[in-house]
Structure formats: structure tokens, C-alpha cells
Amino acid sequence: MLKNGSHQGFTLIELMIVVAIIAILAAIAYPSYTQYKIRTNRTDVQAEMLRINQRLQSYKVVNHSFNNATLDNGTALQSYPLTGTAFYTVTLAIDADNQGYLLKATPIITSIQNGNGEVCVNQDQQRYWFKGGICSSANLSNTSNWDGR
């Protein structure tokens, strides 16, 4: 026999309210987290491209041109990041006169970055990124800070 008022625990209604609140919070948080990851991955590849750009400038000082310049792996193409899951393919295209280049990061189709636009920079530090955009020498800008403007 139960004593009056000695019930312990939660009712099913109380548990369902807690589950509903958690589901609402998850529905709000997950898209924000995904966008955060996309921005972080793009910012990381932009920083890596600036490091590569500095090394290419040093290469030109020593060799007086970009002829035979390569990325860190000894080729004109590499995945980024170098370890773990790759989000971008970074390519180096040397101009015909060997005095300039276009360094471009293209999102890998199967990655979270797919559809987030290419990122590029050239020998004059001209940059371009626009969500859904494609890099070319024509859309580079001295004023771009890679924020899509």
C-alpha cells in the first residue's frame, strides 16, 4: 500500500516537454554550427593561401620568376588540409611569362564546403571570394578582404 504523497519521479508529460525543448534547441543550433564550420574552413584555406603566397614571393626573389614554382607537395595541385578530411583542392597556375600566377582553392564536391565558392589570390595579393563564384583573373580586386564584397 502506498502512503499518500510519497510518489517519486517524473511524469511522461514532463519528460516529453524536456525532449521537445532539447529538439527545438538542436534544430536552432545545428544550422548555426554548420555555417560556423564552413566559415572556419574557408578562413583556414585563405590563411594557408597567404602562406603559400609568401613562399612563392620568396621563390621569385631567388629565381627571378615563378618558372617551375610548385606547392608544398612539389606539384601544382594539393588538397587542403594536408591531413584529415580535405575540404579544398588548391591549384597553382603560372602565367605564360612566368612573372605571375593565380592560386585557387576549389571546394571538393563531396565536402561540407561544396557550393561555398572558390577562393583565389595572385602574385599582387589581389583576392576574390564570393559564395557560388568562380575565380578568374578578371574578378580579382585589390580591395577585397575575402568577405564576398
Automatic annotation (TrEMBL):
<dbReference type="InterPro" id="IPR031982">
    <property type="entry name" value="PilE-like"/>
</dbReference>
<protein>
    <submittedName>
        <fullName>Type IV pilus assembly protein PilE</fullName>
    </submittedName>
</protein>
<keyword id="KW-0812">Transmembrane</keyword>
<dbReference type="Pfam" id="PF07963">
    <property type="entry name" value="N_methyl"/>
</dbReference>
<keyword id="KW-1133">Transmembrane helix</keyword>
<feature type="transmembrane region" description="Helical">
    <location>
        <begin position="12"/>
        <end position="33"/>
    </location>
</feature>
<dbReference type="InterPro" id="IPR000983">
    <property type="entry name" value="Bac_GSPG_pilin"/>
</dbReference>
<dbReference type="InterPro" id="IPR045584">
    <property type="entry name" value="Pilin-like"/>
</dbReference>
<dbReference type="InterPro" id="IPR012902">
    <property type="entry name" value="N_methyl_site"/>
</dbReference>
<keyword id="KW-0488">Methylation</keyword>
<dbReference type="Pfam" id="PF16732">
    <property type="entry name" value="ComP_DUS"/>
</dbReference>
<keyword id="KW-0472">Membrane</keyword>
